[in-house]
Amino acid sequence: MLVVFEKFLWFVLLFVSIYFCIIVCLSSIDRYYTKSTHIGLERNYHFWNTTLPSLTICPMERLDNTLFADYCRKNGIKGPEKAIFWDFLENLANSTYVNFQNIPQSDQIDQIIKDIGLKPEHYMEVIYNLTVDSTYTPSEVNRTRCVDGQTFIHVRQVLTEYGLCYLGNSRLGEKYSSRYLIFGKYPEFNKYEHERRLIQYLEGSFFEKDVQYTLMGFSSPALDSYIHSAFEVMKVDTNFGYTTDGVVYDPISKEITADDNLERQVT
Question: Does residue 166 lie in a domain region?
């Protein structure tokens, strides 16, 4: 009887174990398909490369005097009307949601706009055509450019909440440009950027002590600067204020937290 009882007991235990094994397997499969999955990633320190932040610069003087004079000549705007119309367009080009009240309003402005047949939906096109895209300026001294030593970093003119600005070191596509947003056309080929080695953005490793780039070539006496992620457009809350001089920004990456002298202690 003892032998029979042992065989029966082992049979029950085997049956119960198979049953719960199946339950556990089905539960794991269900959890795999329906529940959140945590994935851990171990990174080699040689590939800890991080894209440097983007920099958007907005000049405070937008319109070009020569282009404006030619526009006025073609549309018959003369004398005091030129100064009135200039004041209107310059304030309009610098307008955003916090200073719309600064745009001058008068019967003279309304009459000028009516005489030349300028519609509100064409305001941005006129401002674009009267603003020089300084990334295409032949003179390198006056050209807006983004450089790292002998390497050019792609810089483009973009349309933002603060009007026409310049963006450097970005990983966004070419659709984010003033020409595409206004006319639906991609920016023209910039031969001056290709005079030297050209990259779209600059990456830096945790172990590189000096990774930097310079965005230069602005003739406006006042500039408004924004620093943001290379994967994002300019944001209002990343404004660093107005400046009339050269400025150096020293961003600190919080992506990697490590002990001091890590780069000299690791194997």
Answer: yes
Q: Are strands 145-148 and 163-168 parallel, antiparallel or unpaired?
A: unpaired
| pTM metric for this prediction | 0.74
The Cα 25–Cα 103 span in angstroms is: 70
* Beta-strand relationship, 151-153 and 197-199: parallel
**Hunting for tokens 């404004």 — which residue is that?**
239
> Both 124 and 237 in a single domain?
no
Query: Considering the domain boundaries, does residue 256 fall inside one?
Result: no
Domain that holds residue 143: 48-60+133-243
- Statement to judge: residues 96 and 16 lie in one domain: no
Q: Is there a domain that residue 211 lies in?
A: yes
Residue 6, pLDDT above cutoff 70: yes
Whether residue 56 is found in the same domain as residue 185: yes
Q: In sequence order, which ranges of the chain are alpha helices (DSSP H)? A: 2-34, 65-75, 80-93, 107-116, 123-129, 178-183, 262-265
Specify the higher pLDDT residue, 1 or 8. Answer: 8
Report helix angle 80-93 to 107-116, nearest 10. 90
- For 76-104, the pLDDT digits (tens) are 888 888 899 999 888 888 888 777 888 88
SS3 (DSSP) at 230: coil
